[in-house]
Amino acid sequence: MMIVPSFEVVIRWLSQARIPHYLFDQCHGIHLVDIQSLDGVLESRLFVENDGVMFTTELEIRPVGLLPLVADLGRLNMSYPTLKIFVDVVDDNLPRLMICDSVHIKAGLTFEQLELFVTSAVTSIKQLYGECEQAGFL
Predict the structure, then answer these.
(1) Which candidate, 26, 25, 18, 27, places its Cα nearest to that of 46?
(2) 84: left (phi > 0), else alpha (psi -120 to 50), else beta?
């Protein structure tokens, strides 16, 4: 059945799909354990918004890996077409690799669609993580 899922419905569906997750008091995101537990992952969260569910992951980049990573961003974005991959550089922090995926929910969503979205995104992010780790970016 297609519904526009609320935050509570997404939490219930994640539990039903046996996707490990947790909530953190000072954040309105749903943290995903499979990605969050990887070394160098700063955040990996699902956000339930009015028009979609956004999956974001932030990886800490080694300063020496920043330039080669930026040079490789075009290829990475083409290799992972469902992900939006970019670098965030803030003066007082180490650079971060931002990875985003989203699914629109205004027309409705089923449990199966959310499960496929999350499991596909987790798989892609883990592959990207492995590639970046092997290249020495992280």
Answers:
(1) 27
(2) beta
Q: Which pTM does this prediction carry?
A: 0.92
Alpha-carbon separation of residue 44 from 55, 82, 97, 111, 135 (angstroms) = 7, 16, 12, 21, 21
Whole-number Å distance between alpha carbons of 83 and 6: 23
Helices 7-16 and 111-135 cross at an angle (nearest 10°) of 80
Please state, rounded to an integer, the average pLDDT across all residues of the chain.
Answer: 95
In angstroms, the CA 60 to CA 99 distance is: 11
Name the residue type at position 45.
Answer: R
Residue type, 35: I
Helices 111-135 & 66-79 angle (0-180, nearest 10): 140
